[in-house]
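Prompt: For my understanding, could you write out one protein's sequence and backbone structure tokens?
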Amino acid sequence: MESSPWTFLDTGKRSGAYNMAYDEALARELAQRPGTPTLRFFEWQPWAISLGHHQKTSDLDEGRCKADGIDIVHRPTGGRAIFHAEELTYSVVMAAGRKSILQVYNDISRALIRGLALYGVDAALQKVQPNFSEEYRSPSSVPCFSSSARYEIEWEGRKLVGSAQRRFHEGERDVVLQHGSILCGPAHMRLVDYLAVTDPAVRGQIRRTLTEKTADLGMITGKTVEREKLAACLRRGFEEAWGITWEERSVPKNFMHKGAGLP
């Protein structure tokens, strides 16, 4: 891991466009000039569906999303669709060094697992990498939480955290952006209602898959998630796993997702 200090940000509830642009701006800023790596926590207001960078908007029923006030946004990273509602989202922006994509996934997941343990949840890493090229041929693969990649975080074999990663290259610098959703309640299941799926059997299969393959912190603990406690535990998990210290950074009130600088 990079040497101390790290920047810690908690930007609270923001729009999907703000959240994704902010992550990308952090990554491009660090790629272009020396700076501190960043851990950020955030939420989504209004609720939103994010699509992987190369995923088609036509996978969604855009009319129903608009009618229900659900934002649609593309992530700067890859992966599949996520319904962002009852969750705490994290992002990590750091220099990659010589680490591979899977090595960085492993490092970040182990820090998150340490934080979840401090919150009282015994999570584990997925050890096997699915054949995504084959899985993506199925209509049921549209949701991110329908399967787990290697080093993603599960609870008793059910996906708890869904993450995606991208590398930014500027000259000799190689910067990682990884962000992901830590499920706190069952609202992610509502993604099924907004998919452009006309076959009731396929829709039913997707719903069953999500029910069988996902877990959330509320279900695991039997309690409403304490957002501030969870964030503090996860932050502590990174401290303990990576031996880092923090410097706080103000959140720009006037940040715009088209070109405004970061503080």
Q: What stands out?
A: Residues 29 and 257 are 14 Å apart (CA to CA). The mean pLDDT is 88.
